[in-house]
Design brief:
Helix content is 35%, strand content 25%. α8 links the parallel β14 and β15. α1 packs across α4.
Amino acid sequence: MEKIFNKIKEALVSGLKGAIGTIVRKSGSSPRSEGTRIVIFESGDIFGSIGGGRLEAEIIQKAKGVIERQKPQNIEFYLKGKDVAGLDMICGGDVEIFLEPFNPKDRVLREIIDKILELYGLGKRGVLATCLDQKSWKRGESNKFLITQDREIMGRYEEIPSEQITQLLHIPSSKIVNLGNMDYFIEPIVSIPTLFLFGGGHISLHISHIASLVGFRVVVVDDRDEFVNSERFPEASELHCIPFEEVLNRLSINSDSYLVIVTRGHLYDKTVLSQALRTNATYIGMIGSKRKRDTIYRALMDEGYTREDLQRVHCPIGLSIGAETPEEIAISIVAELIKIRAETKEGGVL
C-alpha cells in the first residue's frame, strides 16, 4: 500500500488530479481483497489494479466523472453467472468499489498522506478511516481521518471516545465499521515487512529481486564488502557489512522482520541462527539439508536452546516445489515468505 500512497503524493505535489478506486466490500470469490486500490490519473494513466477485466475498465471509465465532479461514488458489481463471464473474470462474487477524487488543493488528504508515509518510514502503525457516505463529502475535500499508534488524530472527524480509538487501532484487517450512523472503511496502516538476507551470495541476488517485487523491504547482510553493494543488490533498502557474530546487536529486528539465513557455510549459519532465535521475528528460515540442519540443531541444544526454540525455524527452507537452480530456490523461498505473511494477516497480527 505504501507504493500507492507514494504515487498519490507524487501526483499531489505535481498539481495533478485523479481518482482512487478501493475495494471496500466483497463476498464470494472476488479476485482481490478489501483495501486493494487502483489510482486513475486525469491524464488517463493508471497505477495499481483491482483485478483487471471489464470490472477495472468500468471503474476507469467512471473515474472521469468523479474527477470532474470532485465527489465520490459507490459502485457495486454483482459477479454471478453471466455477469462473471461478461466481466472477463474467472472468479465469482460481489464487489463494492469506493471511487474517490483527489486534487492538489485537498489539504486534508495531503496531510493524511504525508503522515501515513511518515508512519511507514518510522515503522509505526495507525488506522485510516474513509467515510463511505457520498453526501457527507464536500466538493474537492476528502472525508477521512487517520489515527496513529500514538493516538494522534488528523483529518475530518467528530469527537471519538477513547475506548473507540482503542478498538479502531486493534482492528486486524480492512473492514466497514459504522461510526456515528455513517459507514467508514477502516484500514490498518502497518509497517512493511522487512526481509533480512544473511549472506550476499547468488541465491540472495534472486531472493532480493523477487522479494522486493512482492512488497518486502530488503536488507542484505554479509561480512564481505564485495558482496554488499548497490550494484549487486539494487533493490535493497539497506546493505550492511558486519561480522555475523554481531548481527543481533547491530540490526533492528522485530515482529515485522523475516530472516533468511543463506551464508557461505555451516558455521556462519549457526552463528546467525543462534542470534535469530533470541528475536521475535515472524519468520526464521535457514537453507540446507536435513543432515546439516540436524548437526546445527544438536550444537545449539548443547548451548541451551530447546526443541521448542528450534521449531520456529523453517529448514529446509522454502516451499517444496522441486526447486534446483538458484532462481527456482529463490522463488520457493519467497513463496514461503508470502504464505507466512498472508497467514499472519489472517491471524489478526498487525
